[in-house]
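queue> pop job 88
queue> type: inverse folding (structure -> sequence)
queue> payload:
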């Protein structure tokens, strides 16, 4: 039995050591779990996909098996180190929603791309851990088929709230997550229990009704999915509900009462860019591809491309009620991208700036989707 006791001490020492290294590297919290006991999370994932809630994210069913079982993703994994980095904002991001002349960008995207920040730090920790233990390691940040939120809850970082995001008693809903898989045995931490109780603030805050039930989300109605992942046009019924949200949506996160315990993120690499806090739509609607790439260099916004971003800005313009924005929307009727031309029609119609003089342009439109927008605007039969 001395050997077993010694081994127990060793796995605890390893765990405490890696947690200390994680905090030194800039993470705010680090806990450890194992790759087993994910039956409930797997069932939830299966329901999400079977119900079609994943929308056009085809990679979700394609990676379902690996996502639902860390051992399929990497058969040698024995412990999973889950890490969280606070990105709490200085003020409530919903304040921007009362200013229709600006575009509201989700809090996480106002920083340098967190994938780059976190992955670099994870690699640094993993390399030190591998050198110390001679154990294999793999690092993952968001883009890999890893169920980060269930694993984070299982490790005790927080719990999955009714909005399906992780909630922490110390950081509210504002944690970036990353993971290090290792073939080493480590002492695991207890899971965090659910503290949502009867609260439904996050569910009621959703502008589009994207929660069919607590702890379930339908991406097809989620503003974050629609403005970031979804290509092409957005359904007419949902466009007015998007308001001025041009990249993502923080409403359900910001509504969480646990945010009152969250500190503002002060770490230099995660400090929000001031120019992305409340950018005027007048500065955004005229962006060509080159200027879009320059403005959003190093930002996650850059990944959706100029056309999708301008599509989102046109929705915001149409919802603004600001007639002056029509002058910036009108040139986009001639844009090379059909998704931009189509949304320019919608925006100008909402602003009351389409006239019979636009019929000639409508009649010459070659794209079927854009022609449908002209028809809905009443300028094509």
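queue> result:
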């Amino acid at each position: 039995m001395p050997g077993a006791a010694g081994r127990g001490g060793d796995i605890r020492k390893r765990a405490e050591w890696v947690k200390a290294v994680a905090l030194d590297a800039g993470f705010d919290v680090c806990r450890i779990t194992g790759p087993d006991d994910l039956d409930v999370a797997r069932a939830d994932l299966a329901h999400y996909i079977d119900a079609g809630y994943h929308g056009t994210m085809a990679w979700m069913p394609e990676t379902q098996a690996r996502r639902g079982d860390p051992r399929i993703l990497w058969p040698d994994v024995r412990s999973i180190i889950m890490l969280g980095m606070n990105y709490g904002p200085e003020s409530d991001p919903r304040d921007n929603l009362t200013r229709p002349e600006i575009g509201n960008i989700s809090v996480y995207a106002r920083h340098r791309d967190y994938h780059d920040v976190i992955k670099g730090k994870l690699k640094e920790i993993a390399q030190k851990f591998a050198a110390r233990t001679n154990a294999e390691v793999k690092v993952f940040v968001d883009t890999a088929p890893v169920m980060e939120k269930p694993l984070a809850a299982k490790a005790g970082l927080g719990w999955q709230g009714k909005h399906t995001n992780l909630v922490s008693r110390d950081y509210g809903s504002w944690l970036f997550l990353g993971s290090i898989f290792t073939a080493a045995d480590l002492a695991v931490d207890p899971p965090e229990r659910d503290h949502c109780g009867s609260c439904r603030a996050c569910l009621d805050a959703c502008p589009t009704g994207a929660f069919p039930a607590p702890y379930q989300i339908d991406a097809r109605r989620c503003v974050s999915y629609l403005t970031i992942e979804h290509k092409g046009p957005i359904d007419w019924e949902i466009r007015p509900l998007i308001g001025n949200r041009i990249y993502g949506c923080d409403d359900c996160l910001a509504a969480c009462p646990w945010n009152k315990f969250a500190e503002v993120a002060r770490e230099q690499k995660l400090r929000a860019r001031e120019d992305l806090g409340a950018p005027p739509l007048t500065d955004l609607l005229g962006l060509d591809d080159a200027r879009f790439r320059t403005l959003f260099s190093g930002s996650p916004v850059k990944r959706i491309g100029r056309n999708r971003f301008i599509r989102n800005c046109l929705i915001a313009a149409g919802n603004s009620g600001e007639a002056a924005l029509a002058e910036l929307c009108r040139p986009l009727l001639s844009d090379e991208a059909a998704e931009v031309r189509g949304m320019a029609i919608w925006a100008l119609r909402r602003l009351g700036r389409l006239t019979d003089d636009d019929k000639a342009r409508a009649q010459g439109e070659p794209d079927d989707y854009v022609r449908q927008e002209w028809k809905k605007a009443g300028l094509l039969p």
